[in-house]
What does this fold into?
Amino acid sequence: MLSATSGLVIFTGYLSLGGKAVTIISPDFKFLYYAHLDTIIISKLSWVSAGESIGKVGNTGNARYTPSHLHFSISQMLPHKKFFDPVPLLNDLF
It folds into this structure.
């Protein structure tokens, strides 16, 4: 799994629903959330670049009995929680 943007890794760990998960905050203060990972290969408070490997896709958390996949979301918390379509960021990555 590759990071869709450059940013600061603010969370790596295990969540009951998301399983092994990573949250990155981008320079424009968007929160990128990657969940159900099999392996996390970056550490909290590290800086990642767009396209850098952050982990391997899996089926952890509440996705335990499903095929490996990624739960990916982008949100901006302030001033109002707002979600974004991730496709433009992913298109720029590839």
User: Anything to note?
Assistant: The two ends are 13 Å apart (CA to CA). Residues 87-93 form the longest helix (7 residues).
